[in-house]
Amino acid sequence: MKKLVLATAIAAATTMSMTAQAQEVGTFDIDVNVVASCQLVANPVNFGDVDAFADIDAITAAAPATLDVTCTNGAGYDIALGHTGQLTHATAPAVTYSLFQDAGFLTVWNDTTDTLAATGNGAIQNYDVFAQLAIDNTTEIGAYTGTVTVTVTF
Asked: Which residues form a coiled coil (predicted)?
């Protein structure tokens, strides 16, 4: 009789535990919208020491400036910068410079018509800025400085 009671108790407990574990399953959505984003690092142009007495009409920078652009993969962007400008001196007249996209000085940089269009790939993309300086032997000695504004539109 003890065995029958024990077997009945085990069967009842098993039945109760199976009916007590009901489940309800649901779902929810998860969304993300990745937007275009860009970062810019603009490295300077340095002409170094220049001997203007040599009657040089146009001096080119020994090393071009570089623009390091990192944009989201697939993001289209345009780089614009002024193609000409002036370097100022504390007391002397300003000196004019021109900026180009190529080492042959054929394609000028511009902030409206000659922008550079590209598409981001998620990695740094490098662009050179070639500079040409208009000086001659009448240019006064001393330090000349200027600033170029670079705009990346995405």
From this structure: none
